[in-house]
Structures are given as structure tokens and as C-alpha cells.
């Protein structure tokens, strides 16, 4: 790993100037600071070994995910992460980021100038600018529901979607269903691609023979219901698995308006186990992503990366939560 | 979780009798001890909360894998596990097991009567009797290169074989190879099935179009070379990936005897990075399974299970080690 001396030598400046730039001292020009930080990052310098006296700092980088109220997806996630990281001596900051910030400041530079030695990254899509940075970055990052191959500084965490989809399809099969459809939101995110493949894989594993058009995906929930739900019902599906709970709930309401009884004529399964699932009518059978435990997985992953054990992936066991939206197949006639 | 009192109530014996059975006291009949242990296990009793004063005990359960000498596969694995577990206050025993032992004593009973609170399991095949036990067991176990779905007490660890195969195929493609064959040992083990699928997946991901007969598998290395190597060469393969280093080395020697020059006429890649890979002629390009780091992953996994965070899978980043057995495709004519 490059030292402050290496950076000073490369740029022909003094060690103290490099040190000032890295520690955000005020008496150095913005242009020089930027130049020094970029060079430091190019040379693979990170702050890993530099936290004497003060608690080492981790951050939760978050986008497209709410986290301030107890019922929001990010809330328990961050609590789980803190429950492990803080007793281990880390300070944890939560940093919402925008596209603009990501475009202006490369990931490694952001981490270096803010003294973070590692990050848990929540809610990123495939098009977030830092996703490209992660391919080559040197600062440990743990990505929830995203995956970067072949960079030993980056880990991926999430639930085991293959296992979860397997549990969903097995339950429906046990209940007598054979024609099972799949409604997904847009396939522009890693996790939606994974679940889409997992659906077909689980169907085949269970001896069912899905055609390609047994699944449908759209960006907006309303589009998804409009474009695909009627189509699947007309094809004689007796059960529908949805890529997340919000679609499942929308589909359930729409089917009830069309005169279907859930679960007598149609079973529906969601994904995530959002707090609302207990309160829908009927309560929604779903695959739980335990958010507190995912936060803890995030800590296990960052801790291994900081210990130079390059864990690439941690998958939490998925859990089937059986509620009222699934039942034995009796008839699909309303 | 069941208590000693629950077990005593169920069997109509005293708490002290249950306690004697569980702690291997001598003044109790073998039949009664067995009955009590089986009942305790059925009721989900484990020793997790019972280690006062003495260090809690973990074990490495090992089969079909040598571990006593530094060059053997299990040696560094166990060192990595100990390097994490012992400073954390655990005592670690290494227990070689036979089929006979597994058939005689169920896994949970074995763990209970020997005071182990968790196990790292190395070298098991799909037919090992305890593989069935793991589906329902209550005592945390971390399986290397094996996978049990939907039991929150069982984790799986290994390298990311998809990533590793992706690195191997990408390298060969970059070197100009298009016709790439795959030699595998018998598909009766979980990891061999995973690598076999990973080969076809990586080929497709790289825009190559493998036919089913571009791969071949046999139980013995000699069979594998006899049955499939000539066949692949006659089909015009210019590179061959092997499911592990021993097959790669045997294939390399055989090709050289047939007059091929490795890597001028034929590139060969192994899997594992056994110590021998530096000494073969030419030195073997391979995908490294870092055994010390895998041992550490084993500890991360058991530690999470003991903390009630049901991690299902941990995959270590695979690493491409490029040596002399791969080169640019020039001609496949000898």
C-alpha cells in the first residue's frame, strides 16, 4: 500500500502538504488538495492504518431507501449494522448520497477525504455512478443487493433469493398449484434480475414447466398490474408470486375488484415481509428479508474485508412467512 | 429452546438424571443415557447456553481430506479457523469421522454428548449419512462446499465458483481461444455440480456457445483423461479447464506425451491452486481457493450462527493465478 511519502515523492511536494490535503487542513488550495487526493487514490492509499486515538469511522451510504422511521426498510437495517459495529469500536455515520455527489467525487476520494475506512451501501441501482467506481476501488464496501465480481475490496450481501423463491414455489406446489405466474418490477436492478431467474429455476426444480410468458415485468406497479396481471389470469394461473410486497398487495386488491377471492380462487405471495404484510386483507404470505439480520451481515462482511479476508458474498437464509393469501387450489373459476 | 426440566418432565425422570446423561457421568446406564440424549435432541436442546467457566468448544469434523501436513488441503483451512476461533475464546478439536460413526450416532447427539456448540464440516460428499441429519439439525454447522437449504442452523462456505470460472473463461477468451473444453471429476459432489454449471454459464456470459459434449466427467482421473481428453482434442479444443488441479496436471502430461506443446498448442487451467501448481511443467494457471481465508470464513459463519444471525452462504472471492500453462492461441496443430 502506498504511504504518504510515496505520494509526496510522486507529486514533488512535502509530506506535510500531503498530510494536510488528506486531513482536510484549511491552509492548502482546493486544486492542490484535489490533485493530492486523486493521486493518493490512484496509488491505492487508504486510511486503514491511520486511526490512532479516535474511533475508526464507517459509513452507511444510502440512496432510494427510507430509513428515518421504524417502519421504513432502511431503519432496522442500519440498527442491525450499528448493533455490531458500535460495540466493536466503530463510529457509524449515515450518508444519503445523490447522483450529483457521485459524479463530482469518486468513491475512493469521498471515503479518503471524510476519513471513512469502509462503507455499507444501500439502495443503489445498476446506473448509480459509483457502481462503476466499485469495480476498481480500494476502500472496502459492502453492497446490499448488488454484486461486483473480482474486486477483493467489495462484498455483496442479501437474502438467498434462490432459497426464498424455492420456498414460495414449494409451498404453492404443496397446495396443489401448477400454473404459477410471476409479476416483477423493472429488471434494471441486480436483485430483480436475480429473483426473475430464481423464479424459473425454482419452477423447474419443482418439476413444473413454466413458459417465458408466465412472468411479466414493468417499472411502475400500476403498469405491472395493467400490463401483466389480466394476461396471467386469462392464461389460467391459480397462483402469482410477486417480486416484492407492494406489487403483491396491488395485485391482490385488483383481483378482488375483479371478483376473485384470495386465496380461494387465487393465491398470492410477496417478497420482503414489509411491516404492512400483517395488515393487508387477507394478510400476505411472503418471503422475509430480516432487515436487522441483514444489517448484521453487513457488519460481518465489512469486518472480514478490513481483516483482509476477501468475502465476496454473504447470503442470509430466506424465511417463508405463511399468512392468509395462500391456500389450497380448489378452482380458478370465480 | 427446551430446558433440562422439560426433558426430565417428558421422560418422567429427575433433572439430575438428565444432567448426568448430558454430561457423560458414569453412574447411569447406557440405555438410559441414549434415551435421554435422543429425547433432548428431538426437543431441540443444545448446549449453547451452558458453558460456564470452561471455554466453549467447537469442532472441525473432517472426512476425505488430509490435514496433518502443511502441503495438505485441510492444514491451512484448520489454521485459518483456529486463528479466528481461539483468540475469540473457543477451544477447537479436530475430529475425523467415518460412515460408521455417522450411522451409529446422529449429528445432534454426537455434538451434545461431546459438548460441542458448533462444527466446521470439511470433505463431506452428498452421500455422507450426516448430510441428511443437517436438514433438520439444531446444532450450528458450517459446511465447506456443501449446501443445505432452509435450515437456519446450517451455513455453507466456499469460494465463488461462478466468479472463478468467469475469470478462467475470460482469460482464455482474451488470449484468443473460442473452443474451450471442460474436464471434471464425478458429479456426485455438490461442488463439482456447481463448477460444471458454472463452466457453461461463464462460456455463455463470454459470448461463446458451448455444446453439451464440450464437457466430460469421470470418477477417476485416469478415466477422465482416457474417456474425454482425446475426444475434446479431436473436437478441436484449443484450451481445457479442469475441475481441479490434479486432473489439470494429468491432462497436461498426457497432452505432452501426445506431442502437444502447452501452452503453444493448448492452454490448460486448473482449480484450487494446490501447492504443486508452482512446480508442474509448465507451472499451472489455476483458480485459487485460499484455504486459510476459507478457514476464517468458516469462523465468520459459525460466529454468526451462534449469534442467531442465520447466514446461509459465505462465498470467498476467487482469484486467478496466471502461470505458464496458458498462452495466446496460435495454432492447435501439433
Fold and architecture overview:
The structure is a homodimer of 334-residue chains. By secondary structure, chain A is of the alpha/beta class. The first copy, chain A, has helices at 4-11, 15-22, 30-42, 73-85, 99-104, 107-113, 129-134, 161-174, 190-205, 221-234, 245-257, 291-306; strands spanning 57-62, 91-96, 116-122, 141-144, 154-159, 180-185, 215-218, 239-242, 267-272, 285-288, 311-316, 319-321. Chain A has twelve helices and twelve strands. In chain A, α1 crosses α2 (15-22), α4 (73-85) packs across α12 and α8 crosses α9 (190-205). Chain A is elongated and about 80 Å long. Chain A starts with a helix and ends in a 13-residue tail after the last strand. The model of chain A has no long low-confidence stretch (mean pLDDT 91). The interface between A and B is medium-sized, with 26 and 26 residues. β11 (311-316) of chain A pairs antiparallel with β11 of chain B.
Amino acid at each position: 500500500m502506498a504511504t504518504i511519502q510515496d505520494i509526496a515523492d510522486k507529486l514533488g511536494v512535502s509530506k506535510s502538504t500531503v498530510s494536510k490535503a488528506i486531513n482536510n487542513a484549511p491552509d492548502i488550495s482546493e486544486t492542490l488538495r484535489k490533485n493530492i487526493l486523486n493521486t493518493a487514490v490512484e496509488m491505492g492509499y487508504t486510511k486503514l492504518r491511520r486511526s490512532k486515538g479516535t474511533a475508526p469511522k464507517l459509513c452507511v451510504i444510502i440512496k432510494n431507501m427510507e430509513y428515518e422511521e421504524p417502519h421504513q426498510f432502511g431503519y432496522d437495517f442500519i440498527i442491525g449494522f450499528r448493533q455490531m459495529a458500535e460495540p466493536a469500536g466503530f463510529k457509524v455515520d449515515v450518508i444519503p448520497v445523490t447522483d450529483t455527489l457521485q459524479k463530482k467525487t469518486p468513491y475512493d476520494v469521498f471515503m479518503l477525504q471524510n476519513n471513512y475506512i469502509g462503507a455499507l451501501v444501500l439502495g443503489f441501482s445498476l446506473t448509480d455512478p459509483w457502481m462503476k467506481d466499485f469495480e476498481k476501488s480500494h476502500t472496502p464496501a459492502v453492497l446490499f443487493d448488488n454484486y461486483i465480481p473480482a474486486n477483493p475490496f467489495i462484498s455483496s450481501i442479501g437474502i438467498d433469493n434462490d432459497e426464498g423463491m424455492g420456498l414460495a414455489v414449494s409451498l404453492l406446489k404443496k397446495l396443489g398449484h401448477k400454473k404459477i405466474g410471476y409479476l416483477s418490477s423493472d429488471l434494471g436492478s441486480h436483485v430483480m434480475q436475480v429473483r426473475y431467474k430464481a423464479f424459473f429455476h425454482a419452477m423447474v426444480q419443482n418439476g413444473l414447466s413454466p413458459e417465458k410468458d408466465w412472468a411479466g415485468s414493468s417499472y411502475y406497479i400500476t403498469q405491472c398490474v395493467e400490463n401483466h396481471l389480466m394476461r396471467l389470469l386469462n392464461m389460467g394461473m391459480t397462483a402469482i408470486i410477486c417480486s416484492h410486497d407492494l406489487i403483491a398487495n396491488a395485485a391482490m386488491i385488483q383481483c378482488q375488484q375483479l371478483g376473485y377471492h384470495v386465496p380461494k380462487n387465487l393465491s398470492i405471495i410477496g417478497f420482503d415481509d414489509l411491516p404492512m404484510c400483517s395488515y393487508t386483507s387477507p394478510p400476505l404470505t411472503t418471503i422475509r428479508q430480516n432487515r436487522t439480520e441483514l444489517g448484521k451481515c453487513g457488519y460481518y462482511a465489512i469486518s472480514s474485508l478490513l481483516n483482509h479476508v476477501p468475502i465476496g458474498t454473504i447470503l442470509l437464509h430466506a424465511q417463508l412467512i405463511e399468512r392468509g393469501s395462500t391456500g389450497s387450489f380448489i378452482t380458478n373459476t370465480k
